[in-house]
Write a structure and sequence with these properties.
Number of helices: 9
CATH topology of the largest domain: Rossmann fold
Number of strands: 11
Order of helices and strands: EHEEEHEHEHEHEHEHEHEH
Shape: elongated
CATH class of the largest domain: Alpha Beta
Distance between the termini: 12 Å
Strand content: 15-25%
Protein name: Uroporphyrinogen-III synthase
Length: about 230
């Protein structure tokens, strides 16, 4: 029998993740703790050598301004790369799944002195990609194309979602980790119980603090399919 898995992603992403879980024989329950909003900000002027994205959420705003642009799109991982390809970008390169590695991946493709790059970014952001690009000696400019807005579900929404039945939860960002902590603090009777926290990266697991001690699992690679393999296990 499969696991009952709590999904905290924004609504559209949660739906896709829920479908993946069902195909693996698990029962998803969705309680979005975030909403994605486009900023509508125009891109800064510049002669860009290519684009960087660390989330599929950046693809629609990027495509809205640079549809079918032949310049390379450097995506942090396979999911964001697929979204860029599906949006019509012809030259997409998928990184290894971690923002801190993307600078080295871009450098390997462009060579020393490559750039400048336009980074289609979200708010808030950690600065991890910026640090990696700087370490690689690559020029860039960040362009905030979307923002992640935290949601604070009421007790009624928690009950209606079926979240109390879950025995595992997917935690895909630091924002989801901190949102989960706030949820347990705000709503009496919604504590973690025997929940297993399946976190996409060690940094996300660390954001859970003492709550995750002894009950956190992190995949070897920061990819959703690898995280879902932990659910299967």
């Amino acid at each position: 029998m499969g696991a009952t898995v709590l999904v905290l992603r924004e609504e559209d992403s949660a739906r896709r993740t829920a479908d993946l879980l069902r195909r693996r024989g698990h029962a998803p329950v969705c309680l979005p703790l975030e909403r994605i909003e486009a900023t509508g900000e125009p891109p800064p002027p510049g002669a860009w050598s290519g684009f960087c994205i660390t989330s599929a959420h950046a693809v629609a705003p990027l495509a809205g301004r640079f549809a079918s642009d032949p310049r390379p799109v450097f995506a942090v991982g396979e999911a964001s790369a697929k979204a860029a390809l599906d949006a019509g970008f012809p030259a997409v390169l998928a990184g290894r799944g971690a923002a801190e590695d993307l600078g080295a991946d871009v450098l390997a493709h462009l060579g020393a002195g490559g750039g400048p790059l336009l980074y289609a970014a979200g708010e808030p952001r950690t600065g991890t990609l910026e640090a990696g690009l700087q370490a690689a000696g690559l020029g860039f400019r960040a362009w905030d194309v979307y923002r992640t807005v935290a949601l604070e579900p009421r007790a009624e929404a928690f009950a209606a979602s079926g979240a109390a039945r879950a025995n595992a939860v997917l935690v895909l960002s630091v924002g989801q980790a901190t949102g989960l902590l706030r949820l347990f603090h705000r709503l009496p009777g919604t504590g973690p119980g025997a929940l297993l926290f399946l976190c996409l990266s060690p940094r996300i697991a660390a954001a859970l603090g003492p709550l995750g001690a002894g009950r956190t699992r992190v995949p070897a690679a920061p990819r959703l399919d690898a995280l879902l393999d932990l659910v299967d296990a």
